[in-house]
Amino acid sequence: MTDAVFENKKEKFLELREKKELKDSFGKEKSVGTVRTLPVGTTGVSTAGRVVAKRKMGKVLFAQLYDFTGRVQIYLQKDPEAPEPFQRFVEDVAAGDFVGVRGEMFETKTGELTVKVGEWQLLNKCLRTLPEKFHGISDQEVIYRKRYLDVITNDDSREVFRKRIAIVRSLRRFLEDNDFLEVETPVLQTQASGAMARPFSTHHNALGIDCVLRIAPETYLKRCIGAGMDRVYEFARCFRNEGVSHSHLQDFTMLEFYAAYWNATIQRDFVARMIRNLVDSVFGSVQVSLLGHDVSFDGEWPVYDYCDLIERDCGIDIRSANTKQSLLSAVHDKGLKLEDEDKASWATLVDLLYKKVSRPKLIQPSFIVKYPSEMAPLARKNADDPRFVDLFQFVVAGVELVKAYSELVDPLDQRERFEEQMQAREAGDEETMPMDEDYLSAMEHGFPPISGVGIGIDRLAMILCGCENIKDTVLFPLMRPHAEPTVNTDSND
Asked: The domain 155-302+364-473 is classified under which CATH number: 3.40.50.2300, 3.30.930.10, 1.20.120.1460, 3.90.180.10?
């Protein structure tokens, strides 16, 4: 937009502000989407939104009014005896401005449901021209940086965020309907806990202490269980100072929930019902297309042994290759290469191997069970074979969406595993879990049997909405600062 256009819009804004023509509120009774469902002849219709298109044809004027729920056409006709409202709309309202209207529903000759405006108010002006309505924004970086413009002009983007909102709503309702309590736990902590990940560090000036941003809410939610809250959940903002990819963010939303007196088997059945309910409520069917695959969430989902799955897909038996060196030798013998081989622990290498050779092949809904105990320092060991923990993951379209397990509630076992994690940390693995004495103290005061679940909401939305990049499901993803990006615009007046 040229400086001259901006100055003209600014001058008009100042003129209207001086005349006190910009109203500070409006009794918006119905969303634009709701208005579009009203029958012809409905009177007293009151709605408001942004004007995204306007065209005058002699003594009549049509405009498109937008809010997040959609668009609706409005119609004004010049009254010879009272021309001022019509003329004022023509002169004072441009694309991008906010107006409130009241009127009656009718249908045009072309069959479009329209609000015939009886009265209207100008609520605020737009000083910068919106992107051209038919093409929107094509530059991906501008889309992420100026999401507020992308949502206005891009129906596909708007639909993604509608579905994300519906996903969160469905999960929350399902948990609430099953007696889970929503709680809040600390984001600012004195040490990282709850997952194997590198944290972001900061400093608390008032207390004079170093802190980290939480990487997971797990250990605090389990403290809530110890306090007698049998079922708890949190939609938690988490932060992990790790690499960037199309399916990973450093700040993300995690749903975690925990149930006392459950184990992983009970939890697995609950998760299956919750996911199936989610897909059906958001999409209206359990048969959906995800990332180019026809996926059915109906019926019983297969359950795979983690070690057997890796052996099937690459011929490596991690139960035998149970040291870092023997595993690396087996990996290299197969012509494979894993990231950070020198610094990574055996457990981290196993996880990298699984993600490389097995997970991409799991397209239909699947559960993976029986993980080596080194890979889940907070999970309960299997009663029949303590080399493994009672843990499961839910995978679909080659992406892990759910991780859950029977929680470790034995404080002596937990201390031993923290000590093993500390040894791996001293050997150079920065993603291992540090010793957490406060959490051990809580556990020593007694925990009931617990099973817990973690779901990455951004990744879940990415898969269910068919997005190729996880940033497509986040309204305002973190971006590296730089000069203001240019948005090509054309006037819609």
From this structure: 3.30.930.10
